[in-house]
Amino acid sequence: MATAATGKTNWFAIWVSTAVVVVVALIVALVVWMNNSATDPGTPPTGSGIEQETGAVVVGDGSQTLDTYVDFMCPICGQFETTYGPEILDLVNDGTITLKIHPISILDRASQGTEYSTRSANAMYCVAEADPDAAVPFMQALFEQQPAEQSTGLTDEQLLQIASDAGVTGIDSCVTDRTYESYVAAKTKETPLQPGSDRVGTPTIAVNGETISNSTIPARGSFATLFN
Question: Which UniProt keywords apply (predicted)?
């Protein structure tokens, strides 16, 4: 004898199908959110001393350009500043170049969990936004007081003191809240690769928009030859 099953609604199957659709939608939304989070530059710093398109801290107004990508925990960046910093500023001051400093973060792993590279790069933006003229003195002081790799780095209080010594105060929340943390991460991903390299390194140098190998940087006293 036939049953009267024909036409009966299978609510269990409908519920399962609906649940699957909801789960898939949630997964898609999560993936989209994660992708957006990974690329979201967050709040950009403003001010006349910061190039909005690239995030560079701009010093001078020469017709030629020198871009430097630096991590303030990087010892080779410190050596670069000691070796070439005065020559570079001479080129800025005589109108030869515009210096574009890109504070990036690739060595957070080297500061025992304090994320010093990110914190110091963020602080550089805080200072440059507050007073463009203080950016270079602040950078110089960061390298003069550069902590060793695998140390905890400078504290936020020390960063604020260095900023104060450079003439900038009132940026406490910008530094301690890491206002530009996401921006630093986004700009770090945009760092160009040196010729022949497959990963970002510091310092990375670009002369008139062309990234060069560090091995081609001339000896001390001859940096200007890059712009002849």
Answer: Membrane, Transmembrane, Transmembrane helix
